[in-house]
Amino acid sequence: MSLPEMSALFPTLQEVIFVLFALLIAVTSLIAAMAPNLFHNALGLVATLFGIAGIYFMLEAEFVGVSQILVYIGAIATLITFAIMLTRGMMFGRTSAMNRQGLAGAIISGLFFVVLLGIVFQVPWPNVVADITDGEALIANLGALFVSTYLLPFELLALLLLVALTGALLLARDR
Amino acid sequence: MAIDYLPLLILVITAMIFAAIAIITPTIFGPKRDNTQKKQPYESGMIPFHDARRRFSVKYFLVAMLFLLFDIEVIFLYPWAVVLRDLRWLAMAPMVFFLAVLIVGLLYEWKKGALDWGE
């Protein structure tokens, strides 16, 4: 057997890492959905988000990956844990992961799975390597676009954040 | 290339394994002689006077939300910082305006007393 044939038998390093991340996402998202303690659900969700960040890095989408870790794991996870700690009933004891909409939810998610499966097998996925700019150049491009082509949306975003800031202040005031 | 991040992944996995060993080994080999005082949570030498599982003040939620907003701001600083050296004032001016708008928000919350922790 020649060397290329031999190497075809073993998974590449990328494949191994992908499977590890996929397993992490599958297991932790099950924890996020099924664990009886709401706090454990939140921790499971954090681990799921981490796994998805890993997938982003594998797809060469470094900026999305970094945003995922900084915003979702850093801030939104904190927000979720705080929301749980603020809610009296949820901090104590067990909560049920099921409610009366369980059956409808199962049907809808089942149908959605069938649709996804159909897409995976029907769409003729291109089997060529796309021409992707190197990670650092990509982020530099993004930064240049923020201050040139997308200057107005960029500054409007500051306004959006300002509105969100005042909104948060209005909603979460103690008195 | 994604493979450039392999050292990072190895570091993360090593840290996880190390943490797992540090937790599992004492659980298996360490002596377990419990008493009430040992089971108390350690709070810098203070004697705990209340159950930790109580409802938190809504102020913490506000802090978390403000953190989230400024975290999103940081995300935009990151690609901007990469091009700052090349574009100079062309990049500096938009970011100054961007931050100025957000600082208005910060001043507003300051004035409203959202950063005030006194009772």
Question: What does this entry show, briefly?
Answer:
The complex is a heterodimer of chains A (175) and B (119). Chain A is mostly helical and 175 residues long.
Describe the structure.
The complex is a heterodimer of chains A (175) and B (119). With 175 residues, chain A is mainly alpha-helical. In chain A, 76% of the residues lie in helices and 0% in strands. Chain A contains 8 helices and no strands. Chain A has helices at 3-9, 13-34, 38-58, 62-86, 88-91, 102-122, 135-146, 151-171. In chain A, 15% of the residues are buried. Chain B has 119 residues and is mainly alpha-helical. Chain B has 4 helices and no strands. The longest helix of chain B has 30 residues, at 58-87. Chain B starts with 5 loop residues before the first helix and ends in an 8-residue tail after the last helix. The model of chain B has no long low-confidence stretch (mean pLDDT 83). Classes of the chains: A mainly alpha (175), B mainly alpha (119). At the A-B interface, helix 2, helix 3, helix 4, helix 7 and helix 8 of A face helix 3 and helix 4 of B.
